[in-house]
């Protein structure tokens, strides 16, 4: 087959010059430049040569001068807003903490401190439970500066075992052994030796570890109830009549009100003032014991705690001004401050429950040697009732 005139007719292609290996003529100038580069060794890798790496300063300057995209601007704005919100929240929390601390310190400074007294505990006193904090609340019939008698005694237990606040009413008629004072009603311990002797009497007889107490009289009870705006209580017609009688014969005269002031119209649910609430706790059903009275006191305490959970700044100011100067405690300033810091969390997150000691079936009414009605108590059975309440275990 002939390729004449075809695409691959090699006879028409020009022959390359004999002195050039690639078959292409070159100018004298290019030959001289190539020869020079070969002699210097710079032409060997010239086609693969990389530019030098930019310095850090050059790279930073280029990044700074780089135009920002819409996404990068939006991201920066978002991060800036989050940062400002975080800083604002931190400042707000610190401000509230400082304000609350200042209020707590102001309240603590107004409390009256009880003089330390020697403890009179029997051998084998109960060991302290690290997860349970116990404090005795002692309501007295004091109106002035002289020591009166204990009108009612309550044990408040804050338990980390089951996250509860247990209010235990201790019947003042319990027949107990009082250190260095023989046997008598529980209320007599306060008259004999004040808050410390009453606390030690509770420890020795009920086998419940208690170190601290708070003492407040009737005026302080009335003031704290009024500062919180009163409490809601449902009364029967008979209970309302008894409250009116106590207002007429005792309470109104003591607070300087007219004898017929603040009467209740009859049975029903009312927002009771401080003096009305105290009269409600004094109702005696005439059955010879304080069982019903103790239950009413627990009801009042629960209502006060419920109101305290929604306390207003005005109410807090009134409590600090009117109530704290009338309260006596053996707690140290540092212990009170720590308790104040924990109080909001406990009020909001812990459940409240009631208990009365002695429990049903663990006591018997009998006369003392002087004929005074008292309660003979099975203390072991009552300790078990207390333990189950604060630990939640059977």
Describe this structure in words.
This protein is an alpha/beta fold and 394 residues long. The chain has a single domain (112-391), classed as Aminopeptidase (3-Layer(aba) Sandwich). The chain is 45% helix and 18% strand. It has eleven helices and 13 strands. It has helices spanning 28-40, 56-65, 70-110, 188-206, 218-227, 237-255, 274-281, 291-308, 313-323, 333-349, 379-391, and strands at residues 112-113, 132-140, 150-159, 164-170, 175-177, 183-185, 212-216, 231-235, 268-272, 327-329, 351-357, 363-367, 373-377. The chain has a seven-stranded mixed beta sheet with strand order 1-10-7-2-3-4-11, sandwiched between helices. A two-stranded antiparallel sheet has the order 5-6. A two-stranded antiparallel ribbon has the order 8-9. A hairpin with a 5-residue loop joins strand 12 and strand 13 (373-377). The longest helix has 41 residues, at 70-110. The radius of gyration is 44 Å and the shape is globular. Mean pLDDT is 83; it is low at 1-12, 23-27 and 29-46.
């Amino acid at each position: 087959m002939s390729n004449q005139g075809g695409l691959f007719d090699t006879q028409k292609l020009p022959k390359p010059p004999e002195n050039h290996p690639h078959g292409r003529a070159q100018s004298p100038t290019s030959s001289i430049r190539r020869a020079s580069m070969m002699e210097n060794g710079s032409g060997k890798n010239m086609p693969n040569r990389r530019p030098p790496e930019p310095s850090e300063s050059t790279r930073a300057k280029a990044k700074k001068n780089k135009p920002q995209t819409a996404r990068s601007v939006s991201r920066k704005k978002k991060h800036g807003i989050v940062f400002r919100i975080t800083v604002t929240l931190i400042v707000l929390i610190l401000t509230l903490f400082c304000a609350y601390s200042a209020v707590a310190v102001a309240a603590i400074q107004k409390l009256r401190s009880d003089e330390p007294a020697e403890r009179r505990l029997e051998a084998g006193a109960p060991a302290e439970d690290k997860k349970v904090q116990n404090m005795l609340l002692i309501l007295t019939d004091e109106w002035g500066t002289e020591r009166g008698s204990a009108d009612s005694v309550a044990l408040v237990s804050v338990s980390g075992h089951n996250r509860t606040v247990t209010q235990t009413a201790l019947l003042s008629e319990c027949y107990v052994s009082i250190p260095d004072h023989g046997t008598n009603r529980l209320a007599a311990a306060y008259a004999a030796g004040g808050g410390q002797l009453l606390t030690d009497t509770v420890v020795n007889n009920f086998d419940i570890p208690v170190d601290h107490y708070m003492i407040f009289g009737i005026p302080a009870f009335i003031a704290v109830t009024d500062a919180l705006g009163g409490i809601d209580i449902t009364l029967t017609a008979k209970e309302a009549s008894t409250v009116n009688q106590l207002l007429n014969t005792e309470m109104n005269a003591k607070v300087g009100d007219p004898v017929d002031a603040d009467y209740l119209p009859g049975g029903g649910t009312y927002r009771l003032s401080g003096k009305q609430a105290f009269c409600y706790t004094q109702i005696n059903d005439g059955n010879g014991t304080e069982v019903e009275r103790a239950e009413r006191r627990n009801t009042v305490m629960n209502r006060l705690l419920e109101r305290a959970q929604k306390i207003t700044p005005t109410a807090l100011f009134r409590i600090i001004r009117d109530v704290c100067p009338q309260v006596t405690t053996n707690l140290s300033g540092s212990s009170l401050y720590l308790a104040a810091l924990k109080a909001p969390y406990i009020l909001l997150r812990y459940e409240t429950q009631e208990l009365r000691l002695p429990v049903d079936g663990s006591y018997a009414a009998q006369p003392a040697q002087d004929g005074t009605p008292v309660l003979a108590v099975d203390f072991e059975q009552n300790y078990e009732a207390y333990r189950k309440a604060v630990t939640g275990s059977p």
